[in-house]
Amino acid sequence: MTKTGKIYGINGPVIYLKGNTGFQMSEMVYVGKEKLVGEVIGLTRDQTTIQVFEETSGLKPGEEVIATGGAISVTLAPGIISNIFDGIERPLHEIAKSAGAYISRGVSVDSLDATKLWKTHIVVKPGQVVDGGTIIAEVPETSAVVHKVMIPPDMEGTIISVVADGEYTIHDTLVTLRLENRKTVPITMTQRWPIRVPRPAHERFAASKPLVTGQRILDTLFPLAKGGTAAVPGGFGTGKTMTQHQIAKWSDADIIVYIGCGERGNEMTQVLEDFSKLVDPKSGNPLMDRTVLIANTSNMPVAAREASIYTGITLAEYYRDMGYHVAIMADSTSRWAEALRELSGRLEEMPAEEGFPAYLASRLSAFYERAGMMRNLNGTEGSVSIIGAVSPQGGDFSEPVTQNTKRFVRCFWGLDKSLAYARHFPAIHWLTSYSEYLTDLAAWYADNVGAEFVDNRNQIVAILNQESSLMEIVKLIGSDVLPDDQKLILEIARVIRLGFLQQNAFHPEDTCVPLEKQLKMMETILYLYERARALITMGMPMSILKEDTIFEKVISIKYDVENNALYKFDEYKKAIDTFYNKVLEKNG
Amino acid sequence: MVIEYLGLQEINGPLVAIEGVSGASYDEIVEINVGDKEKKIGRVVEIYGDKAVIQVFEGTENMSLVNTHTRFTGHPLEVSLSPDILGRTFNGIGQPIDGLGEIVTEKKVDVNGMPLNPVTREYPRNYIRTGISAIDGLTTLIRGQKLPIFSGNGLPHDQLAAQIVRQASLGDSSGEEFGIIFAAMGVKYDVADFFRRAFEESGVSSHVTMFLNLASDPVVERLITPKVALTAAEYLAFELGMHILVILTDMTSFAEAMREVSSSKGEIPSRKGYPGYLYSELATIYERAGIVAGVNGSVTQIPILTMPNDDITHPIPDLTGYITEGQIVLDRAMNGQSIYPPINVLPSLSRLMKDGIGEGYTREDHQDVANQLFSCYAKVGEARNLASVIGEDELSPLDKKYLEFGNAFEKEFVGQGPNENRTILDTLDIGWRLLRLLPREELDRINTKILDKYY
Q1: What backbone phi and psi angles, to 5 degrees, belong to A263?
Q2: How high is the ipTM of this complex?
C-alpha cells in the first residue's frame, strides 16, 4: 500500500509533514494536487522534510503527499541522446508541446518517448547464461551512437526466450530471463536507476589515454585523461562556458553530457542551435547526435538544480556501461553548491564556511569520484570524464567551492581575469593551471604523437615561466635594459602566447587543432628560438633580429597552415634558416 | 465564502504572523484592513501548520495585534494588463498613481512568471544601435539581451541609461513597435524625476510605462516591483509583439530589501548577510529577458546597480555578472577626468555580441577591431604602470605610442557628448583611426586581409 502524508508547513522549496510518515530517506514523492515531484531529505520521529523540484506557490497545508516507494531515479533507454532534459529528466521539447513557451508546474510527461519504434537487433540466444550488464540487443539510437541494451546490473540468470529482430518500443519485452530463484522476468530496453547511487563497474583503471580536445593549451600543456576530472574556475566573463563549449564540440569523447546547472537560458538555446548545425569532423554526423543536454537554468526551481548534476552523471555512467567514452560538462558546479547552500539554509542547518553546509566537500568528492576509466560488468571498457566549471565568488579562488574542488580534481584550468580583459582566449593561465595526468599520459604521447612531444611541452612551459620572472623586472625598469638573451626569451614567450596559446574559437581552422599540428607548431617555435639564440650568442643584438618579420610569420602559423596541410611546416623551417643566414651575412 | 481573520499573533518588521489559519496557500496574496482606515497588501511567505507568516508590502506602520482584518485572496499577486498601460505610472505593486484611474481589463497575470523553456527561446542576434561608441563598438547590445550597468554612487549611470533609451533605434527597422518599461526600486525622487523628464524630452513618454518605488516608499514593496514590471514587459512583448526595453534601477536596493526581510524572518545568512537564495531571486528577474521563438516581440533588460564601495566583487554585482549576458562597467577615475560616458571597457563585456555583429549585421571588421582595441588598451595599462615607476621619458618608443593611443582612445572613442549619436560605421572608423597610431605589426588580432583593406 502506498504511504501518504499531509503537508504541514511550507518554506520555499522545502515542505514539512507532521508525524511519522514511514517514508524512506531519498524517496521520491508526489506533492499536492498538482503532483509536484519531491524528494525526502530529512526524517525524524515526528517530522518528514521534503524538497520539491518545482515552484511551491499555491500549495496548502493539508494537501496530500504520496510516496512512490523508490528513490529519485532516471529512466534509461534509447531516446536519451540528442534530447534536452530538465534537472529531473523531463524532456523540455515535450514540456513545450504540452505547456507552451513557459515551464509550468506539475507537467506530467514521460522521460522518453514510449511509442517510438526502435530497430532492434538481438545479440543473445535462448539458453545463454547472462550476468548483470550483459548486452542483449543493439539499437541504432542516432547516426552516431548504437545503444546497447543491457541486463540491469543487479540481475543474472538464464535466457529462456528472445524476440526476433524487428522494431520495438522501449517497453516491449525483448528477452525473458529465468533468475536463480526460478522466477522469470521480462527484460525490456528500459532500466530505472537512482541518481544518487553510482552504477557498478567491474574495476577501475589508471588513466592512460588523453581526452583530445583540439585545444592547444589543454592538449599540450595541461592534458586531461579519459576518465579524469578537471575543474575550470573563473570569474564572470573569463570564458568558462566557452571552454566547456569548445570541449563539448571538439573532444574525441563518444558521448557528451552537457549539464547547464543554474546558468543562462540563452546559453542552452545557443548550444541547442549550434550543436544541431555543427558537424562532428570525425564522423560527419551532427554534434547533437552524440550529445545530451540537461538544462536547469538559473530561474528554474533550485532543488532540481541540485539534482541535475546527479541526473547527468547517471546518464553518463549508463553509456559508459555500454563501452563508450563519455565526457560530462558541468556548468557550473558553483551553482549546484549554491543550491545546496540555499536548501541547507531553508533547513536551518548549521552553516560552515561562507554559509555553505559542512557536507559540501563530501558531496563534491562523491560527485567527482564517479568519474573514471572502468572495466564494465560486461567486460567492455568505458570512461566518464568530468569537466566542472567553477564560478568563484568575486573571481577569488580561495573560496570554499574552488578550494574543495581542487582537492578532488587532478586537472586545474584556472581562468584569469586580466587575460580575459586583454581578450587573450582561452584565458587559461599557464602559471596557475596544472595537470597531474601529464606523467600518466607521457607514454601515450610518445607512442602516438611523437617521442619529443612531452620534452617540447616542458621547454615551452619553461620559457613561459622565465618570461614571468623577467616580467617582474620589466615592470620595474622597462624591457630596454635587459640583456639580449633575456629580450629573446620575452620575444619567444610572446610568440608562444600569441601564436600557440591563443586560439580563436571562431576561426574555422583554428577552433580545433590536431595533435600533430600542435607538435609541429611547438617544434617550429622552438627551432626559431634555437636559431635566434645562436645569433644572440654570436653577439647580434635583439633589435636586428626583430627587423625581420619571421616572428610575426611564426605567430600566424595557426591561421596560415591548414590542419590538413602540415607539409607547409617545412617551408617555415626553411624560412627560419633563411632568416638565420640573412642576419649572419648582413652583420657577421 | 470569505473568512476574515481578526487580529495578528506577531508583528516583526515587515512580517506579521497569524495563527489559526486554515486553507492558506503558499505565496498567496492577503488583504489586510487596518483599523478600517487603510488597506494593505501582503504575501504569504511561510506556512507552518495553522500559522501563516505574511510579508506586508506597505510596511507594518499603524498595525497592531488587534486592529486588523485579514482576508486571504486565494491567488498570488496579479497585475492588470492592457495595451493602455503604456504612458501610465504605477506604484511598486502595479497600482496606478498618476490619477488617471484603474486599468480596466479582464486580463490579470501572476507576477511571479514562469521560467521560459530553453527549447522555446530564440537565440538573440539582432543588435540595437545605441549610438554610443563604447557600447556599439565593444559591448554591443543585442535585442533580447540582459546587459546591466555596473556603476557607483555619483556616476552618470542615469544619464547613460537615458541616452541609450533616447538613441536606441529600436524602431528603425520596418517601423516595429517599441516600448519602454521603467522600474525604479528605492531610488531618490530626483532620479525618478530625471527619467520622467528625459522620456518627455525625447518624446517617448507615450511608449513608457513607469513603476515607481521611491526611496521613501515601503521597502518590501520593492521586492515585487521588478516582477510586476517584467510581467508587464512580457505581456507587451510576447502578446502584443512589441520590442520592449526594460530599465531596472537600482538592483542594489532590491537586494538590500531582500536582506532586510530575510533577516527579520530569522533566516540563516550566507554572504555578507544576504540570504542564500539571492542568486535564485536575481536569476528569476534577469532571466525574464529574451525572445520566444515564433513571436515578434522581445524583452531587453538594462538593469542598473550601484556597486557598494565600487567593489565589483561585492555579492550583488558578482552574482549579477554570473547571470546576465555581460556588463557595462562605469569607472570613477575616468569620470574624474570628465570623460563621458566613463565606461571602463576592459571589464565590460557583451556575451551575445559575437553572434550579432560582423558581415550582414554591422561590418566585416567589427569583431577584429573590437578585439584589437581591447588588447591594445590592456597594454596601455601596462605602459602606464611602467611610466608611473620609471617616468614617462624613460619609456621605449613603442610604450610611448601606447600611452598616446590610450589617451586618444579614452577621449575620442569612449568619450562622446551626451547627445552625440554615432553610427556604427563612425564608431568603427574612429577605432581604425586610433589603431593607426600604432605600428602595424602590433595589430596581432586582426586578420591580414582586413588589415590590408582598412589599416
Answers
A1: -110, -165
A2: 0.88
